[in-house]
Specification:
95 residues, 3 strands, WH_DNA-bd_sf, 4 helices, mainly alpha, 3-stranded antiparallel sheet, disordered N terminus, DUF3253
């Protein structure tokens, strides 16, 4: 493993990747957090797992800023109080 594959993504990289993937997916659609983690992890097969907590933390921050929404079972959830499987989608007006 090289130093490059061990490097964790920056906050800017995390934010940009999540926002880009959500925008590409489009209105009314969501992404799996693992999609962002895999995009950021590089070529090492299992490295994305180490990135998942960073993706979650960034998704929570972006939700609090009103830039994305965290959803479970299709419903927007409180970013400070959710567990389990979640998805990230565009922030809808009024949420």
């Amino acid at each position: 493993m090289t130093d490059r594959t061990r490097r964790m993504p920056s906050e800017d990289d995390l934010e940009r990747t999540i926002l880009d993937l959500v925008a590409e997916r489009g209105a009314g659609k969501t992404i799996c957090p693992s999609e962002a983690a895999r995009a950021l992890a590089g070529k090492e097969p299992d490295a994305w797992g180490r990135v998942m907590p960073l993706v979650r933390r960034t998704a929570v921050r972006l939700t609090k800023e009103g830039r994305v929404a965290i959803r479970r079972k299709g419903k927007v959830v409180d970013p400070d109080d959710f567990r389990g499987v979640y998805r990230i989608g565009p922030a809808e007006a009024g949420e």
